[in-house]
Specification:
The chain is of the alpha+beta class. The protein is built from 11 helices and 4 strands; from the N terminus they run E-H-E-H-E-E-H-H-H-H-H-H-H-H-H. Strand 1, helix 1 and strand 2 form a beta-alpha-beta unit. It starts with a strand and ends with a helix.
């Protein structure tokens, strides 16, 4: 059986990491049996120092995209079955836009907006010893700030970051239109990523201009609800309501 190494449910989401949620939905789409491991030991053993990764038959595969490629190659799954090359390319472009643009807007909103940090990521450090917890939190936030600056998003103003995040979500809304899934009536591989990121942005725990903007796009809210119902029985939407 495949083991998915994850953080575990938090903030009314299947996982606080959209990349973990993406990997889990891909496993669900593929119909492959799996178990989830959320221990700190597993996190420390992550091949690339990040989650998610999977263990499959003695092989460890890190990064949600490489997990997808592994599933396709080893288990003979075509996540984009029935779609032509143009549609597949569109799906890939959407997925990478979300992962390389919207993701950084979400990191900024969750980690560097103090109110959101206190409601969310600060809780990750609760198991740390009380006397040194402020030091650990400070180091972690400085690392996030450096990563954002190095990537480029951290050089923008909060308003500019929000504008980029909103534009990415609007692009997804426009591509989706009134379809059930991104490309048509059948889910494709990019739906795993789009669902994970849209659900993450709509999380009511975090206040943000991006969330407020896409709450007005009814097709995105319905899309989130539809996929949450399909892959998680709607449990997390109900918990967050």
């Amino acid at each position: 059986m495949i083991t998915l190494y994850a953080f575990g449910p938090a903030f009314g989401l299947p996982d606080p990491s959209p990349f973990v949620t993406k990997a889990e939905v891909l496993l669900k789409m593929a119909g492959l049996p799996y178990r989830t491991e959320t221990s700190m030991t597993a996190f420390r053993k992550a091949p690339k120092g990040k989650l998610p990764y999977i263990g499959d038959g003695g092989v460890r595969v890190a990064d949600s995209t490489f997990i997808r490629w592994h599933i396709e190659k080893k288990h003979g799954v075509d996540f984009d079955a029935g779609y032509d090359a143009r549609a597949r390319a569109t799906a890939w472009a959407i997925e990478k836009m979300l992962e390389d643009q919207l993701y950084w807007a979400m990191v900024f909103e969750r980690w560097l907006v103090n109110e959101n940090f206190d409601r969310g990521p600060r809780t990750f450090f609760d198991p740390s010893p009380t006397p040194i917890r402020p030091l650990i939190v400070g180091v972690a936030r400085r690392k996030v700030r450096r990563n954002l600056h190095g990537q480029g998003f951290g050089r923008h103003s909060p308003e500019e970051i929000a504008a980029l995040g909103i534009r990415a979500c609007e692009a997804v809304a426009d591509v989706l239109g009134d379809r059930t899934y991104l490309l048509d009536d059948t889910p494709c591989g990019a739906d795993a990523a789009a669902f994970a990121f849209i659900a993450g942005v709509l999380c009511p725990v975090f206040e943000s201009p991006v969330r407020r903007a896409i709450e007005t796009r009814r097709n995105l809210v319905a899309y989130r609800d539809r996929l949450m119902e399909r892959y998680y029985g709607g449990a997390y939407v109900k918990a967050a309501a």
